[in-house]
Design a protein that fits this description.
- By secondary structure, the chain is α/β, with parallel strands linked by helices.
- It is 38% helix and 22% strand.
- The strands form two sheets. The protein has a six-stranded parallel beta sheet with strand order 3-2-1-4-5-6. It has a five-stranded mixed beta sheet with strand order 7-8-9-10-11, with helices on both faces.
- It starts with a strand and ends with a helix.
- Bound molecules: magnesium ion (3 copies).
Length: 305
């Protein structure tokens, strides 16, 4: 039975393209693996897959009894069902180390860089395996997405170097133009349900015993969300009522480089504690905040201690 290479819940472009790339590399190293994803691709990811002629991985929500490789996460809160009886053979990631444990040795490539795609580029190089042109293009887009076209504080020189090399392989002349094209696709919210928008890029965290959900929508102009803000606020209240202490939704303006955060919480004072700014009603503008991973999760973890 082939092992699965699988990314986090509510898959983003990185977790899907990383599954495709990592499965390609492992196959070329002689392993029996297939890429998988915990859900369908978002419009942004669809754009990337279509652009480079790749197909979406099979959707898998239960990994009981399977051999698995994790990409783009190592938190059980973002894992599929059946982790108790799955065997984690490897992890390729760029987040804080999560709570996944293993009974046997594993290959772990966890780097403090902006994207799993960057780690994978270096893995291909390490093993001396050539990156296929279409997969290089998809990895390149994942790095542009995760680093918000190099603007996120999570972006490192290693990410920029990887993009440069991948662009050559993929034949992409203007990476910033490609990034903007992708973020315009990502900014389109017309026709999507409030539920879909909240969960498009959403993660649950365990913060000192409290279940805390944090979602993020990245747009090229916040005014694009004016018509849906009230609906989003109502939707996160619903999500909170399903057994969570808090749900926060970051509405990130990638041009203004900051986020409006919608808030619903049993204890709204955690927001002031985490960011030092007083919310106005149930939202707050966080200047310069673009990264959930680097600027939001650590602050909340401290505030919940
Ligand atoms: Mg991700
Ligand atoms: Mg990522
Ligand atoms: Mg992201």
């Amino acid at each position: 039975m082939a092992a699965l290479v699988i990314g986090h819940m509510n898959p983003d472009t990185d977790s899907i393209t990383a599954a495709i790339a990592c499965a390609d590399l492992l196959k070329k190293l002689g392993k029996d693996v297939v890429p998988a994803a915990q859900g369908e691709p978002t419009p942004e990811t669809k754009f990337v897959l279509d652009k480079f002629g790749l197909t979406a991985p099979q959707v898998v929500n239960d990994v009981a009894g399977k051999d698995i490789y994790l990409v783009d996460f190592s938190d059980l809160a973002q894992a599929p069902k059946g982790m108790d009886s799955a065997c984690v053979k490897g992890i390729v990631d760029h987040h804080k180390l999560g709570d996944v444990t293993t009974a046997a040795p594993l290959d772990a490539w966890i780097w403090a860089v902006g994207c799993t795609g960057t780690v994978l580029k270096n893995m291909y190089d390490f093993y001396g395996v050539e990156i296929p042109k279409n997969i290089a293009g998809a990895m390149l887009c994942a790095i542009l997405s995760d680093t918000v076209i190099f603007k996120s504080p999570t972006c490192t020189d290693a990410d920029k170097k990887a993009v440069e090399a991948l662009a050559k392989i993929a034949g992409v002349a203007d990476v910033k133009a490609l990034g903007m094209e992708m973020f315009k696709v990502k900014s389109a919210v017309d026709g999507a349900s409030m539920h879909d928008l909240v969960f498009r890029d959403y993660k649950d965290f365990d913060m000192n015993g409290n279940k805390v959900g944090i979602g993020q929508l990245e747009v090229v102009d916040l005014s694009l969300l004016d018509n849906v803000k009230a609906g989003l606020q109502a939707e996160i209240a619903k999500v909170k009522s399903e057994g969570r202490h808090s749900v926060f939704l970051l509405l990130t303006d990638i041009m203004k480089e900051g986020s409006e955060m919608l808030i619903v919480s049993d204890d709204p004072s955690v927001v002031k504690k985490a960011f030092g700014v007083e919310p106005k009603g149930n939202s707050v503008w966080l200047d310069g905040v673009m990264s959930r991973k680097k600027q939001v999760v650590p602050n909340f973890e401290k505030a919940f201690k």
